[in-house]
Design brief:
Layout: H1 3-21, H2 26-41, H3 46-53, H4 57-71, H5 87-90, H6 92-95, H7 101-128, H8 130-134, H9 147-166, H10 172-191, H11 195-213, H12 217-237, H13 239-255, H14 259-268, H15 274-290, H16 301-311, H17 325-354, H18 362-375, H19 385-398, H20 407-412
Helix pairs in contact: 1-2, 1-7, 4-17, 7-9, 7-10, 7-19, 9-10, 9-11, 9-18, 11-12, 11-18, 14-15, 15-17, 17-18, 18-19
Length: 413
C-alpha cells in the first residue's frame, strides 16, 4: 500500500472520529483536528484544491478572519491572551479538502451517531439519580461536556434529523429510528440546562419547518403547534427548564433595580448567569466607546477588561471573555473587525442561496450561520472549543462545491 493511500485512510478515519467524538472530548477534538490538518498538508495534491477554493468569497472570508487576528497585533497595547482560541475557524479552507465528498457526507452521520450515544449517556445519568433530579439536582456532572456546548450540539442534531425526515430521505426501519431519536433528543433538550441551546432549538425547528413546508400551510401549522406542545410539556414536567427560565426572567427584570444583588446571586449559584452576562456586556460597551473603530487588538479582551475593572469605582467582576462572541469581536477589533467577522456568516448564507434546492444540506447551510449568530449573543461560541469545532466541521461539509455543483459555476454566479 502506497504512502498516499495510507495518508488518505488515516485522514478518513481521523475525520470521522472527529465527528463522532466531538460531543465527548475536547482532547479528542484537538488531536483529530490537528491530525486531519497535518495529514492534509502532507499531501501535495491538497494545495491545488485549497488554492482553487480560495478563489471564492466564502473561503476567502475565513482567511480574512485569520488575517484580522494577525494584523490586530499592530494596535495591541496590552499583553495578548488566548489570541489563538479561534484557530479551528482558520483551518476551514484546509479541512474542506481533507477528505472526498463521500467521507464528508459520512461525517454528518458520524456526528449525529455520536450525539445519539451522548444522549444515551445523559439519560443513564439522569435516571440513575431520578428522585434527586426531580428535586432539583442537575448540572454538568450529568453531561459528557458542558451544557454551554451540549445543548447547542443537541439543537443542531435535531435540525439534521428533522431535515432528513421532512426531505423524505428515510424509509422503513431507518425512518422509525430517526423519529425515535428525534423525540428523545427534543426531550433531552429540556431535561438539561443549556438555555442558549434551547433558544437555538426553537429557531432551528421553526426555520427548518418553514424551509420545507412554507407552501404547505397545514403541515407548517402542524409543526408550529407541535413546537408549542413541546414547550408546554417542558414547562410543566421539566424542573430544569422551568427553574432556569424563571431565573433568567427574574435576573433580567431585577438587573437594573439591584445590580449587586443579582451579580452576587450569579457568583454563588453557577446554574444561572444571565445577570453576569448583562454585566459583562454593559461594561464591554463602555470599553468599545473609547476605541470603536479598531478595538484594542488581538487577544486583548481579558487584560483590557480586568484593567478597566481595577481602575473603576463601580462594581465590576473580572472575566476572560464577555460571554458574547459578538461583543468579544467588537472589543478586540472594533467595527472594522466586526464587519470582517460578519462577512463569514454573510458568505455562508450567500453560498447557501446559490445551492440547488435538491441539495440535501441546503436547509442546514442556511440555518448554520443564523444559528451561530443567534446563540453567540449568549456566549462566545466561535471562541469556545467544542462549538467552534462544530462550526468548522459542518462548514467544511455543507459548503463543499463537489456535493452540489462545480466550483467554476459558483465563481461565475
Amino acid at each position: 500500500m502506497s504512502i498516499i493511500r495510507v495518508n488518505q485512510k488515516l485522514r478518513n478515519f481521523s475525520f470521522l472520529a472527529l465527528g463522532f467524538l466531538m460531543p465527548f472530548s475536547a482532547a479528542a477534538i484537538s488531536i483529530f483536528m490537528l491530525l486531519v490538518i497535518l495529514l492534509t498538508l502532507l499531501d501535495s495534491k491538497s494545495y491545488q484544491r485549497i488554492y482553487n477554493n480560495l478563489k471564492t468569497p466564502l473561503f476567502q472570508s475565513f482567511v480574512l478572519f485569520f488575517a484580522l487576528h494577525m494584523i490586530g497585533f499592530y494596535w495591541l497595547e496590552v499583553e495578548s491572551i488566548n489570541w489563538h482560541k479561534s484557530w479551528m475557524i482558520w483551518m476551514i479552507p484546509i479541512l474542506v479538502v481533507s477528505v472526498n465528498k463521500n467521507i464528508a457526507r459520512k461525517g454528518v452521520y458520524a456526528f449525529v451517531i455520536g450525539m445519539m450515544f451522548a444522549e444515551i449517556y445523559v439519560y443513564y445519568n439522569i435516571f440513575s439519580i431520578w428522585k434527586e433530579y426531580l428535586n432539583g439536582r442537575y448540572g454538568d456532572f450529568l453531561l459528557p461536556i458542558s451544557h454551554i456546548a451540549y445543548n447547542p450540539f443537541l439543537a443542531v442534531s435535531v435540525g439534521l434529523l428533522l431535515t432528513t425526515l421532512l426531505a423524505g430521505q428515510y424509509k422503513n426501519i431507518r425512518l422509525i429510528v430517526a423519529i425515535i431519536f428525534l423525540i428523545t433528543m427534543v426531550a433531552n433538550m429540556f431535561m438539561t440546562g443549556g438555555r442558549a441551546g434551547q433558544v437555538g432549538f426553537i429557531f432551528i425547528w421553526m426555520a427548518i419547518s418553514y424551509y420545507y413546508l412554507r407552501k404547505n400551510t397545514i403541515g407548517l401549522f402542524g409543526m408550529l403547534i407541535s413546537l408549542v406542545f413541546v414547550l408546554i410539556i417542558a414547562w410543566n414536567f421539566s424542573p430544569v427548564f422551568q427553574d432556569r427560565a424563571l431565573k433568567a426572567i427574574d435576573e433580567v427584570s431585577l438587573y437594573r433595580e439591584n445590580v449587586e444583588k443579582t451579580l452576587e446571586t450569579d457568583i454563588n449559584n453557577s446554574s444561572t448567569s444571565v445577570g453576569l452576562r448583562l454585566h459583562f456586556n454593559e461594561h464591554s460597551l463602555k470599553l468599545l466607546k473609547d476605541s470603536p473603530v479598531l478595538g484594542y487588538g488581538t487577544g486583548s479582551f481579558e487584560n483590557v477588561f480586568n484593567k478597566y475593572s481595577d481602575n473603576s469605582q463601580e462594581l465590576i467582576f473580572k472575566t476572560s471573555n464577555p460571554h458574547s462572541n459578538h461583543m468579544l469581536i467588537l472589543v478586540q477589533f472594533g467595527i472594522f473587525g466586526f464587519l470582517i467577522y460578519l462577512n463569514m456568516f454573510y458568505q455562508q448564507i450567500r453560498a447557501a442561496n446559490l445551492m440547488p434546492r435538491e441539495y440535501e444540506f441546503r436547509a442546514m447551510a442556511f440555518v448554520l450561520p443564523l444559528f451561530f449568530i443567534l446563540i453567540s449573543f449568549y456566549d462566545s461560541y466561535i471562541w469556545g472549543h467544542h462549538t467552534q469545532a462544530l462550526f468548522a466541521y459542518l462548514t467544511a461539509i455543507f459548503y463543499r462545491f463537489d456535493l452540489y455543483q462545480t466550483q467554476d459555476d459558483y465563481i461565475q454566479k
